Structure formats: structure tokens, C-alpha cells
Amino acid sequence: MVGDQERRRRRGWREEEDRISELPDALRLQILSLLPLKSAIRTGVLSSRWRGLWEQRWPDPSSVDVRLPSGAAASASVAALRGEHLAAVERRGRRRMDCLSLAFHAGQLAPPELKRFIEYAAACDVEEVRLRLDGGGGRGARGGTRRPGALAVHFPIGSKLLARLSVRGLHLTASANAMVATLEVIHFHSVSLTDAALRRVVSACPRLRELELRYCRHLRRIDFTVGAANLKSLTVVDCSRATELRVPSAPRLRSFRFSGAFLCSNIFGSTVDCLEHLYLCSGGPETGLPRTNLPSAVPRLSNLTVLTLCSIALQYVSASVATTTTTTTMDRSLHSLRELQLLMFGMANSNLADIYSFLKACRCPQLERLFVQLPTNTYDSFTTNYLEVAEEEPPEGGLENLWSAKMTNFKGYRNEIRLVDFLLRKASCLNKLFLIAPKEVLPQVHRKVHSEALPHFLKTDVSRLERASVTAQIIFDESVSPQSQPLHSEVFVRI
User: Fold this and answer.
1) Taking the chain, what is the end-to-end CA distance rounded to the nearest angstrom?
2) pTM for the complete prediction?
């Protein structure tokens, strides 16, 4: 039993510890005004008196959100609304600003007006800038050049506290020898910029930890020879002309997500052995194996916890480990892998053989979740390929800790059934196996009234397969557990 004296002592310690919460609101708001946005929000854990107080640290509005409606770009209503926004923004004075969010359509803002918004936000020491142009952003420029009169953003923005920058649909130019010591996150979507401009942006941001490039189709060579010392996350999606990527030194890189034509250079050096998340997808059908050494390092990335491979990358990995006789099984063990996602463009014998070869060569003793996205084609490729490729025997072990598996676009074709049978017989801890049929592609008026896309006899046949786990459930309805999604499912979510 705790005595009264001990309780009073503890209560007094807590009261003394929380004296800062007893300060007048004016003083606490002054403290918050000196903190960056992220730190100000975190003060909410101190006590209930601090929660939400950060929103009042500056007079309203602390953030500016301007969204011009779609419609005629030069209409009188849009012009009047644009003028009202500019006037309202400037009436607030040059007080600190958390975020400037500016969304508009092609033709609604002239270059001087865009510059006016950005310069005002920079003068207010803005911490986050979001610029989004819809309907024509970046189109019309070729080879990284800019059309006269096109909207452009000049980097650096000019704010002394800028931490996050998101740009979509605009041109971007960058100064040489610039320095932005505070910028940590950059997202570029459909941005027209040259290879040199991107290099200048990255080298100017020594604290950059997250970089995302989507649909930047004028980039050809992504080179981070300088400026990637603190980079933790790199995402490159459909930068279709980029054929080379160089990151020779990124000791803190934990996540690399790439979708596009396979690169001819390999970023996986000794400095990125701590990579934890890897996503590799060619984004297209199998048309042979172009020269690349990018996936060849997958078996030796022993710290990977989440891995996504398309069927072409899977073929590369399988071929690489098959031809490497000096590497031991232990060296190829992905002993930290918890989740594996396979994006299959085909499911012929060769594809199934690649899956088996990968699981044989790259042991995954801690694998818990498996996702297989099957092709959407309406015919069974086994019927046209079964004489061409020798069948691969499935691995004997390696799925001892697998407790959840999900196959989407499941149609019940022969090789799909073989994979299901393999999982059920080898995964002794399997709890749930989701088999999700392809979504209807017919118009709403022609869709079937019932929701069961798989025939009853197929469900019956699958349910009768032998199971190593007595608790294994086979589920044909995705709504039973909608949260069962791969961690890399957000790679194609557009900003």
C-alpha cells in the first residue's frame, strides 16, 4: 500500500513537472510561435491544455488554401475570384504561414500572378508549399525546354523555413549554388524539369529525406551523386525517358520504389544494404529481358522487410540466383522479409516456375503476408505454353510463418490452382487465404445482380484442397477484411 505521504510526494512531483501548462495562454502561444509547425503540433502530448493550441499561435488564417474552380479560364467570374483571393491573402499581412496550397486550371493564372502568390508565401516564411496545375501542366514542352509564357516555378522558393514542397503540372527551373537548409520533402508530379535542374535541387537540400518523382517525362538521367546523404525514401514512377539512375552513396536509404522501364544502372551498392522497402515494377507486358543489373542485388538485401516484384523483375532475380553458383543459400536468405507482393503479368508455366525458383533460392523464413496480383487476361495461358517450358518443382519449405495470403484476379485457371494448392499444403500457420475474382468491367446496367463472380463448383473444388493448417480459412469475398492490403498499394496513388 502506498502511504499518504508518498502519494502527496508523487502528486507534488507531477504538479511541479507540469508547471509550464499553468502559464497564461498568451505566453504559451508566444512559445508556440517560435516553433516549427511539426514541433508545435507535438506539444499536444504535454497535457490537455496544449492540445489544439498550436492552431491559434498566429492570427487566422495560418494557412492559405486557394482553389480556382474549373470552367472557362478567362471568364469574368474566375477573374473576380482570383482577384478576391489575392486581395484576401495580402490583407492578412506578412505573418508566419504554415502552408500555401494553390490549385488551379490551365489559363486561370498568369505568370505574374503565380509569382505574386509564391513571393508572398516566401515572405511569410511558409513551411509547406503545394502548387497544382490541372489540364495541360507541363505539356507542350519537349526535351525539358519551356514554351514562352508557360507557367514556371523558380527554385529555391525563398522561404527560410520551407520544409515540404509539392509541385504538379508546372515547369521548374533551379539556380546553381543555391542552398535550402530546411527542405526535407519534395514531391514532383508531371513537372517539366531538366536533369541538371533536378541535380541542382537535390544538391541544394542537405536535409532532404523524401523525394518522389512521378510522370516527369523529360528526365533522362536521374543522378544523385551529390546531395543524397540523408535521403531515406526515393520513389520514381513512370518517368518514361529516364533510362539511368545513379545513387552511389545513400547510406540512410530505407525505401526505394520504382515503376518504369528497367534501368541499365544498379543503385544497390554497399552503402544501401539497410534498404527495408523495395518496389520494382516494369509496368508493362513481358517482351524479353533488356540488359539491366537492377534486380540482381535483391537476394543479398538481407534487411528487406517489404518487397514487391513484377513478373519481369521476378524473372531477373530467378535467373540471377540460378546462374550464381558461388553464393550460398544463407547469403541469399531474406531473413527479415515480412511481406512479399508479386505483380504477375502472365501465369504460364514459366511464371509459376519463377515463383518457385525465387522461393527456393531466396529463403524467407519470417514471411508473414503474401500478395499475388494475377493477370486480368480471360484465357488460361497454360493451354498455349505447357509444351514449351519444363515444370518447376515447388520448394519444400520456407512458408512456416505465413499466416495471410491474398490472390487477386483469381479465375481458377490451372496454374492459379497449382499455386493455391502449394500454399495450402506448405503454409502450416496459414490463417486466411483470400481468392478474389476479377472486378466486373461491364457497365453498371449490364452487371450481374448477384455478387459471386466465381462459380460455385470452383469454390467447392478449392475448398476441398488439402491444408497443412487446421485453422486456414478460404475467403472469396474481399469485404470480409478490407484492410488486407499490401503496404505498397499506395505507389500508384496520385497526388
Assistant:
1) 57
2) 0.80
3-state secondary structure the chain: CCCHHHHHHHHHHHHHHCHHHHCCHHHHHHHHHCCCHHHHHHHHHCCCCCCCHHHHCCCCCCEEEEECCCCCCCCHHHHHHHHHHHHHHHHCCCCCCCEEEEEEECCCCCHHHHHHHHHHHHHCCCCEEEEEEECCCCCCCCCCCCCCCCCEEEECCCCCCCCEEEEECCEEEECCCCCCCCCCEEEEECCECCHHHHHHHHHCCCCCCEEEEECCCCCCEEECCCCCCCCCEEEEECCCCCCEEECCCCCCCCEEEEECCCCCCCCCCHHHCCCCEEEEECCCCCCCCCCCCCHHHHHHCCCCCEEEEEHHHHHHHHHHHHHCCCCCCCCCCCCCCCEEEEECCCCCHHHHHHHHHHHHHCCCCCCCEEEEECCCCCCCCHHHHCCCCCCCCCCCCCCCCCCEEEEECCCCCHHHHHHHHHHHHHCCCCCEEEEECCCCCCCHHHCCCCCCCCCHHHHHHHHCCCCCCCCCEEECCHHHCCCCCCHHHHCCCCC
Of 301, 249, 299, nearest to 275 by C-alpha is 301
> What CA–CA distance (Å, rounded) separates 380 from 382?
5
In angstroms and rounded to an integer, the radius of gyration of the C-alpha atoms of the chain is 27
Q: Which of 221-225, 313-317, 471-475 has the highest mean pLDDT?
A: 471-475
Q: Pick from 17, 5, 58, 14: which is nearest to 36 by CA?
A: 58
Where are the domains positioned within the chain?
21-57, 59-253
Chain-centre distance of CA 227, in angstroms?
A: 21
What's the pLDDT tens digit per position in 408-467?
Answer: 999 999 999 999 999 999 999 999 999 999 886 434 444 443 445 788 888 888 999 999
**Can you tell me the distance from the alpha carbon of 129 to that of 144, in angstroms, rounded to the nearest whole number?**
23
